[in-house]
Amino acid sequence: MPRLFKITLVFLLVLAPLLLFSQVKIMTWNLKNIGSSKTEDNISYIAQIIKQADVVAIQEVVTNPSGAQTILALQEELNRKSGAKWDYVLSDPTVSSPYRSERYAYLWKTKQLKLQKKAFLEPTYQMEIEREPYMATFQHKDFQFTLVSLHALPKKHQPEQEIKYLKFLPALYENKNLIFLGDFNTPESNSVFNPLKKQGY
Description:
By secondary structure, this protein is an alpha+beta fold. The chain is built from five helices and nine strands.
């Protein structure tokens, strides 16, 4: 199949805590300006990929109304074609410069997971992180975990300068079983991740 758009797709979490998630499939995908630029064929293709997961973190949803409309269309496509019922949440636009602001989204299978409370943009370091992380806590049977979705700055803008603030979040959200995921624009080998690794991530 020809590549319809540039994708960054990650099945394996680089920064997951050392917990066993054999029953929950988690995916993260930067869909690059998801909004009116995505055709019906694009949406069908995206749904075909992500229906394998139980929950998907999406980065780079455009802030104009077409972003929300496209996420809704994706949810409806999943409901039609995956054999499961899906729900979704969409963040407010990130508190950043207008040309970098975007939204995040989560989509999940309602039979597998229940959203706990309201997902939110993490406010503590919103002045230090251009697109502050979007956090959502899910319940799976008797276990809760919190996804922390981040779209870091492009490599040429030194994403390390904002990724370094992630190391403070486990202390702020103790006992929340944080899982960091998203588009870091930085390889796992970068030393900026060492403080999180020392904490068991």
